[in-house]
Amino acid sequence: MSELDSYDVAIVGAGIVGLAHALAAARDGRRVLVIDRDAQANGASIRNFGFVTVTGQEQGTVWRRARRSRDVWME
After folding, report:
1. Is this model's pTM higher than 0.70 or not?
2. I need a labelling partner for 23 at 20 to 30 A (CA). Which of 15, 17, 54, 75 fits?
3. Strand runs labelled E in the chain
């Protein structure tokens, strides 16, 4: 196995949750492999694409998390 075939983290599923975990691991300096069953997006994340909103959240912890999630999505 070469170094190119070596990963610190394997993420199964390229939906928004899997990709969020992959992004966090990569930012932490880990080598990440993302595995998905399909070559192109077609699951729930693609159907909900763009539906990131902070409206309707109460001020406080949940609202701050929603804002942070939106900021990460925009990156």
Report:
1. no
2. 54
3. 9-12, 32-35
